[in-house]
């Protein structure tokens, strides 16, 4: 009992350590995978509306979260109760993630210890075992134990002040916010101005001509994706437009930004609190990534459903989606892509989804968010318990930043 208590106290996901206490009276590997997900802080057994995650997806999800969260040590209590199937899955998990396994079999009988040793040998783990007696194991856990920092509690969604479309157009095309709006908009205008100056300075050092459309879209989405209101978004765009004008360039964008939709229009600031809330409510990496993409891009679900594994940059910082189209396209002639910059707190979830597909052997053209939309979306949104603006106010046409053009004056 003292050893189990020490192992539980020693666990700290933020320091790369988790302890799993297998659910009693269960033998299938699915339950152990869900126990690992629970130790990682993900909902494991009873989502509010979605189906319970099954065995193979649960083990792949555990491998993804262990990798993304940088978990380095996994302790399993009552290891002498492991079945051959569970031992084999732990061996695969260790091979995929490189995690250090600590198996506690205190209180086991001679027969149970012999059976565990056999299972470990069959799984290819027996040759790497380091045996510790109880006092040595207690020292291992107590000397590394540290006070556990409190996790951020999920905060309710903050209501943002609404801005009408007419006022958005006035800010975008009227006098600069520094003259006609509250002082808080002056900072947003200045942020857009400086961002344009810095971006142009970098591109002029690397490219002799105007940057291509992809770079323009990434800049504009990066500038506005974390904007909390439409008013702030238009102020940032206005500042960027002034910055480009000082360099002899003209930023052309839709007159009515609210009607176009896109980053900063039907997105929400993807903060650490938002990330914590949705990632704890949904255990599947691809489903969490789908929610993050909805919140960060403001794209309609009929476009996100076509996103492929190759559409995500390896570090999760960029996502490409098919442009809204009305025509026939095939694999040799895909539709044009729209580029979105992904905020820092959302990037690990896009990386986790990409890794999940790679672990299941999916090719690059496989749909990244498969089994996340359609009839499953309603349950997924209820589990996440966070408002998603693009679902309430969809914009079927091209996003504003895709319509924008950087031209010479």
Tell me what you see in this structure.
The protein is mainly alpha-helical and 409 residues long. The chain folds into 3 domains: 2-144, Rossmann fold, CATH 3.40.50; 176-266 and 402-408, no CATH class; 272-392. Helix content is 48%, strand content 7%. It is built from 19 helices and 7 strands. Residues 146-180 have low confidence and may be disordered.
Q: SSE string, helix = H, strand = E?
A: HEHHEHEHHHHHHHEHHHHEEHHHHE
CATH class of the largest domain equals Alpha Beta
Distance between the termini: 76 Å
Question: Low-confidence segments, ≥5 residues, pLDDT <50?
Answer: 146-180
Q: Which fold name is given in CATH as the topology of the largest domain?
A: Rossmann fold
- Percent strand equals 5-15%
Taking all Cα atoms into account, the compactness measure Rg is 25 Å
Q: Judging by the overall fold, what is the CATH architecture of the largest domain? A: 3-Layer(aba) Sandwich
Estimated helix fraction: 40-55%
If helices are DSSP runs of H or I spanning 4 or more residues, what is the number of helices?
Answer: 19
| Count of discrete structural domains | 3
Which helices and strands, and how do they pair?
Blueprint: H1 2-10, E1 17-20, H2 29-39, H3 55-68, E2 73-76, H4 84-97, E3 100-103, H5 110-122, H6 134-144, H7 165-173, H8 177-180, H9 183-206, H10 213-224, H11 230-246, E4 249-252, H12 257-260, H13 272-281, H14 285-297, H15 301-304, E5 318-322, E6 337-341, H16 347-359, H17 377-384, H18 389-392, H19 400-403, E7 405-408
Parallel strand pairs: 1-2, 2-3
Antiparallel strand pairs: 4-7, 5-6
Helix pairs in contact: 1-6, 2-3, 3-4, 3-16, 7-11, 9-11, 14-16
């Amino acid at each position: 009992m003292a050893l189990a208590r020490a192992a539980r106290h020693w666990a700290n996901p933020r320091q790369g350590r988790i302890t799993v206490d297998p659910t009693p009276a269960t033998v299938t590997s699915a339950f152990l995978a869900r126990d690992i997900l629970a130790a990682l802080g993900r909902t494991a057994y009873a989502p509010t509306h979605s189906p319970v995650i099954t065995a193979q997806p649960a083990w792949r999800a555990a491998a993804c979260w262990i990798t993304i969260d940088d978990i380095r040590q996994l302790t399993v209590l009552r290891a002498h109760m492991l079945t051959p199937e569970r031992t084999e899955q732990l061996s695969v998990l260790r091979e995929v993630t490189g995690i250090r396994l600590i198996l506690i079999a205190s209180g086991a009988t001679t027969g149970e210890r012999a059976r565990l040793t056999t299972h470990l040998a069959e799984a290819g783990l027996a040759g790497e075992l380091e045996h510790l007696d109880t006092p040595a194991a207690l020292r291992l856990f107590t000397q590394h134990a540290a006070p556990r920092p409190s996790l951020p509690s999920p905060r309710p969604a903050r209501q943002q002040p609404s801005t009408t479309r007419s006022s958005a157009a006035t800010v975008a095309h009227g006098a600069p916010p520094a003259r006609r709006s509250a002082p808080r908009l002056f900072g947003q205008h200045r942020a857009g101005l400086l961002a344009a100056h810095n971006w142009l300075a970098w591109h002029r050092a690397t490219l002799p001509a105007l940057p291509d459309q992809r770079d323009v879209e990434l800049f504009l989405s990066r500038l506005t994706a974390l904007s909390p209101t439409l008013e702030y978004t238009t102020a940032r765009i206005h500042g960027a437009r002034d910055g480009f004008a000082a360099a002899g360039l003209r930023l052309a964008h839709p007159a009515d930004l609210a009607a176009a939709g896109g980053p900063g229009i039907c997105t929400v600031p993807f903060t650490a609190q938002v990330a914590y809330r949705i990632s704890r409510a949904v255990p599947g990496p691809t489903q969490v990534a789908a929610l993050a993409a909805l919140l960060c891009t403001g794209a309609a679900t009929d476009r996100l459903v076509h996103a492929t594994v190759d559409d995500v940059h390896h570090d999760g910082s960029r996502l490409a989606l098919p442009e809204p189209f009305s025509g026939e396209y095939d694999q040799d002639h895909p539709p044009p892509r729209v580029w979105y910059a992904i905020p820092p707190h959302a990037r690990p979830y896009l990386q986790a989804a990409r890794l999940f597909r790679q672990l299941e052997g999916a090719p690059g053209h496989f749909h990244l968010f498969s089994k996340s939309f359609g009839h499953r979306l309603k349950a997924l949104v209820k589990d996440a318990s966070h408002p998603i603006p693009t679902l309430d106010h969809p914009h079927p046409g091209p996003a504003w930043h895709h319509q924008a053009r950087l031209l010479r004056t």
